[in-house]
Structure formats: structure tokens, C-alpha cells
Amino acid sequence: MTQLPIIPILLPLVGGLIVLAISKFGITAQRVAGLSLTGALVLVGVKTLLLANGGETHVYNLGNWPAPFGIVIVLDRLSALMTLLTAVLALAALTYAVITRVDEKGPHFHVLVQLLLFGLNGAFLTGDAFNLFVFFEVLLLSSYGLLLHGSGAERTRAGLHYVVINLIGSTLFLFAVGTLYGALGTLNIADMAEKIANAPSERNGLIAAAGLLLLVVFGLKAAVFPLYLWLPQAYSNTSAPVAALFAIMTKVGIYAIIRVHGTLFGETAGALTGVHIPWLLSGGLITLVLAALGIAAARKLSEQVAYVVLGSVATLLIAVGLDRPEALAAGLYYLLHSTLLAAAFFTLADLIRRQRGSEEDRFQKASPIGYRKRLGVAFFLTAVAIAGLPPFSGFIGKVMILDTALAHPWRWGVLTCVLAASLLTLIALVRSGSFLFYRPLAESQAENVSVAPNRPCSGLWLVGSLLTVAPLLAVFAGSVMDYTSETVAQLQATPLYIQAVMENPTIGRN
């Protein structure tokens, strides 16, 4: 058990090397290895969740170096939840890539997926701000390759924007952690929280400035206004399996805000307590409005789904910005819903695209779509769940967030933005469904249009599997909310976190 916290990081790292070594044996060997390794990661994720559910903070010191001098891996309820969610999402995305043969379009698709998982799990489990930067760079380097997988002019253009904006973010990240190190003399998150609590008042301005700069970096990763424009183009122009996997990427930024800023500027931070909170709520509200407008103005289904992802990020940011334990617990519940439903929607959009011939998933008239009834039912269920209508989990998550907002000074702004955005999203999705399924070209107009009637619809079962998340989360909402509420209680017990990391016996091995 003492070695378990490091396994979600080591497994994809070693797995990537294994897949690279066997790549000379062909794509089949890579597929078997990739799916097996990702399936094993799901099992490890379940094991870590069960371990973390005991309520303890498990710390692993690499090389027997105690905190704050060595690299620290920290497993608690939140990091365990995120690693399991990442593994499940990756298994679904990888399965769809194999089904549709997207992985054949480049030589190292499976290697890049494993390295992306290495970076993601490292970011979720690290207890050190500098190593958070390192893992961010690992996952970003992998995501560059995956984003461009399969080539194409639009994909290359979107990839260039993605690379440039993230390079700027990485530079700002270094400035922020360098300033924090200069002010505090450490980058271990627990140690920084302890030193901020005891910092002289004359350093508060410098620490606050560095913390807000770090907030800008995490906001860029999460695609928060005004740093969100890269997301719709990047997500809508890459392949469907990669877009589905990228549904977790923006959540890394949200996680980093909860973990880093929630720990450094929590109740123990004195005058700096909650210095980041006002920026989160206002940024979340503006981003949500712009996301809803983007959903309404989208010109193709994949672009619309990308704006749906942006809207889910904004809703999560509002939940964090409300600065209430109940709101954060509801936000974590909504995070599960939104991440897996976004993956289902990207996959469904690709299936629809494959049935519409030359028009693909653009909102233009085309010949009657193949598998119209099956895809139509799947689209209806996905749209209802994504828009947050009862009886699915999106409705429950938003209601819980809004219920908490009633006691907040900004309650009318939050209620107006969330409800208006949900209504606009629903109207836009209804219009999209009508266009895709009920407005085909007349037979005389369709003669010169390239179509692919009844092309295989492999992967629809995977969409159905992901969609079961919405009713299951609704049925087991009480149990899931119990877990997220306990997670928030653990997150807000900053002194216990500091004690667990700083006084932990060295259990790592040379």
C-alpha cells in the first residue's frame, strides 16, 4: 500500500516506453499494449480511490528525501478521484481510436497517449509547485503531438495557436514559481502554505502578485476568459478520440486552482485568505456567457461541443468562486458529469460526421443521414443531459450549485447567467438536432452531393456506455455527494495536509 501513490505515475511512463519498444511489430501490438496498460490504470485508479476513501492523506517521498527537500507525491480523495476519472476517460477514447482506426494515421499515437497520462497523473498527484510545472510540460508536449495527429491545414493552424498560447503560459508559470520561491524559499505546496501563514506583512503584496500570476496561468490552462479562444479551434479540429481525451485537460487547470490556491490562500493564510476568489467568480460568469453564445453561433457540431466543454469549465469555476464547501462539493459532482458527457458528445459528433458525406458535421443541408434513428436518439439523450435537464446528473449538479449561490452576494448574477446559459444551450442543441436529422436536401438537390450512406456506425455502443454516467450519477447522487463533501472537508483541513506532508516518515525507496 505504501507504494500505491506512485503507481498511477509510473505505469503510463513505463507503458509508453514499452509501446515505443514494440512499435516495430506493428499497430496491432501497440493497440493490445495500449488498451491493456490503460485498463490496468483503471484498476489502479479504483485501488487508489478505495485507499483514499479512508480519509488519510498518503504521502510518498521519492528517494527517501523528506519534504520539503525532495519530490513529494500526495494521494488524497481529490487526487484519487481525478486519476480514476482520467483512466476511465482514456480507456474510452483509446477504444474509439482503435474502432475507427484513427490511431493508424501516425506512428506514435499510443505512445503519446501513455505519456499524456503520465503528465496528467503526475499533475494530479504532485505536492510540489515546480514539479507541477514539469508535469504540465510533459502533458502539453504529448498533447501537441496528439492534437496534430492525422495532419490537415485547419488542424495545423489550430495546433500552432495552441502551442504558442501554452508556451506563453509556461513562461508565466516559471515567473510565478520563481517569485514564490524568492519570497518563501520553498516550492513544496504544504511548506509554502505554512510559510505564507507566518510571512511578514511587508511580503504580502509580493506573494499575492505571484499567486495571482499563477492564477492567470491556471486560468489559461482551463480556458477562462479572456484566455479561452484557443480551445474551440483546437478541440473542434483535432480527431474525435483526442478531443474526447482532452475533455480532462481543462479540468487540470481547475484542479490546480483548487489544490494550489485553495491550500496556499485558504483559511490559514491570514490577510491573504481568499485573495483569488473574486477573480474566479467574475471570470467564470463571463466565460459562461461567452460559451453559451459560442454554442449558439457554432457552424459545426464539433465546434459546438468544444464550446460545451468551455461552458462546463465556467460552471466549475463559478462553483469554486462561490467559496462555499457545498458549492465546491457540487462542482466536483458536476465535474464527473461534464467530463464524461463531453467525451460522449465528441464521439457522437464524429459518428454523425461519418454519416453525412461531404458535408460532415457542418450545419448545412445534406442527404439523409445513415442510422438516423439510432444517432437521433443518442443525440437527444446527450443534448438533454448536457443542457442540464431533469432527471439527469447535469440538472442535479447545477441545482446544487445554484442552491448554494442563493446565500451569496452575487446570487442574482449567478442565477441569471447559469439559467440563461442553460436555456440558450438547450435552444442551440435543439436547433442543431433539427438541422442534422430533419432538414435533408431534396432528392433533386442531393444528386451531386457526395454521401456515404449507411457507413458502419461502429462506436455507438461506446457513446451509450458513456451516456449511462448521467442516469447513474443521478441515481447514486447521494453517495457521490457524500464522497465529494468529504473531499472538500479534507481539502479545507489545511493544517492536517501540512502535517501529513511535512511530518510524514520517508516511505519512498532508493
Task: Please tell me about this protein's structure.
- The chain is mainly alpha-helical and 510 residues long.
- It has a domain at 276-500.
- Helices cover 70% and strands 2% of the residues.
- The chain is built from 21 helices and 2 strands.
- The chain has helices spanning 7-21, 27-52, 77-99, 109-125, 129-147, 153-184, 189-197, 204-222, 230-237, 240-245, 249-264, 277-297, 301-321, 325-354, 372-387, 393-405, 411-438, 460-467, 469-475, 477-492, 494-502; strands at 58-61, 72-75.
- The chain has a two-stranded antiparallel ribbon.
For the terminal residues, how far apart are their CA atoms? 17 Å
> Using DSSP, what is the number of strands?
2
H/I helix tally: 21
**Proportion of residues in extended strands:** under 5%
Strand order of the largest sheet: 1-2
Q: What integer value in Å does the Rg equal?
A: 22 Å
Mean pLDDT rating = 87
Backbone structural class: mainly alpha
Helix content: over 70%
Described by strand count, sense and barrel closure, the largest sheet is: 2 strands, antiparallel
Question: What is the H/E string?
Answer: HHEEHHHHHHHHHHHHHHHHHHH
Q: Note poorly predicted spans.
A: 448-453, 506-510
Q: Give the overall shape, derived from the CA principal axes.
A: globular
